Amino acid sequence: MTNTDYSPKPFLCLHCGNETIMQIVAKHNDQEFEYTFHPEYNEEVPWAVYDTSYTLYKCPVCSKVTLKSIESFDGIKDHKGRVIETENILYPIQTGDLKYVPERIKGAFESALKTKNVDRVMCAIGLRRTLEMLCYDQKAEGKTLYKKLVDLSDKAIIPKVLDKVSHLIRDLGNAAAHEENVEFDIHIINDLIRFTRIILDYVYVIPKELIRIQEQFDLNKKEA
Question: Domain containing 72: what range?
């Protein structure tokens, strides 16, 4: 691998929040074969392959690394006969894909990420704003963010357990907006980011992924 190898397109660094072309610093590929019995040869022969490629990227802005994987199984194809590939970010740890999140809410969340290593107070305010926008989108009732999140919990739009963590969002958001000289530990900010991401996943990503998986399952069942 040389210093001239880069990602084919920009993507978001979850460390610093910048969207940029990344330097490729390492690559690795794994393959596993699935076998079936072939009566003509009277033995097990490979009929499909699980392919996983790993790529380690380095951000030119913060110099931290991101590990991505692309998984495919040539026994499963889309309606055009193309092998389906699934891309995952393995590090830094995250959940789901933001592609199903409404653009305005996605933009607010990504803007908050960009301030994490610059101004943690602004990051906390940005995350609170992201959740306010989500509550508005989901028609939550209540005068405060906390009450809106509890309302979403009561309606089973978000898991019941998350309304307990909503106290943290309320307190941190109020401190960031109204208290002078407030400072937030980076670990608290990281937890706040993860909490916000979990809610985004639960409301927008998981339902769409379940539909996609069911549709793909039904398609493969018809073709079998």
Answer: 11-94
